[in-house]
Amino acid sequence: MKKxxxxxxxxxxFKYKLFTFPxxxxxxxxxxxxxxxxxxxFKIKLANGREYIxxxxxxxxxxxxxxxxxxxxxxxxxxxxxxxxGIGHRVVNGGEIFxxxxxxxxxxxxxxxxxxxxxxxxxxxxxxGIKAFMQILPNVPQVAVFDTSFHQTLDPVHYLYSxxxxxxxxxxIRKYGAHGTSVDYVVKRAAKLMGINHNIIxxxxxxxxxxxxxxxxxxxxxxxxxxxxxxxxxxxxxxRSGDLDPTVVQRLMDKAGMxxxxxxxxxxxxxxxxxxxxxxxxxxxxxxxxxxxxxxxRRIFINRVVRYIGAYIAELGHIDGIVFTAGVGEHDPGIRAxxxxxxxxxxxxxxxxxxxxxxxxxxxxxNSKVKALIVPTNEELMIARDVMRLTRQQ
Length: 394
Hints:
eight-stranded mixed β-sheet, ATP-binding, 21% strand, 2 domains, Nucleotidyltransferase, domain 5
């Protein structure tokens, strides 16, 4: 039996899950949080449900990795590092260089760093995480799994912007998409639940979390997607504006005296439902809030999701289903109901009673021509599967 670690690194944290193969069971999971900051914490949860929390100083990613390996041994999750078939790392943007997951060497690691301008908030901490694991576990394969890989099937009609073509050739300005690892899992799982071969299924996947994207899936492959050159594009999000007339940036620079970096910071961190509501980026807070713009923010969020789904229905010609996943998609019945209600005209018959609870399920009535369902995402499992595929351990 082989074991695979799946890692999701942030600027001051990394989440992890340890799987066994071929049964794909999670035998440990947790987080190293506030790495390099005060009040750092390391958590590990075992298969028996026991959780251990260590409040300790974690100065850097390398220290966090050492603490993880020590904990896995301490709690007898692994006895030897030879049990590890590999370690998989989520990387947000692989540009046009990485069309599939790949085993990382020093040259490929540098390429991930070089792509940082496409995802500056993500690629650098993710590359730092890979580097730390490579230093501590040099004999264990490190595999990068890119969110953009699933969207490599986009046609130029869908990924090019209507600007001089030379900007694409010279600077790589195009739509790259995001959340591909999540969408890939959701498509395959939804197809199984619906009894349709995933290679012929047409779906619209709504990955709705703090970051949100809508993906049109044709024949099991990405056909179009809402996020663009960066994760800032597309629908309204928790703190991101989504699609915006670019002259708004010029207006803010001229009238508010802001620099381009300040404007982009606002669009990334102070906009979205937070900016509209003035209350929170969390949908749960908006439900409880009595502020007049809290409900407006939720209505705008639903509207932007509906717009993209409607456009993608037109592009695909027909769809088999609409799938909700990620934090908001899996846990906010009000958002789901608002979206589903807009598509009764295509034969979607919402089951509003089923919609009141969470968990993997159908949200449409049995005779509904177009299905709606919740599929909880599992990016870590997809990462672990790619490790097994690339290290030929299956």
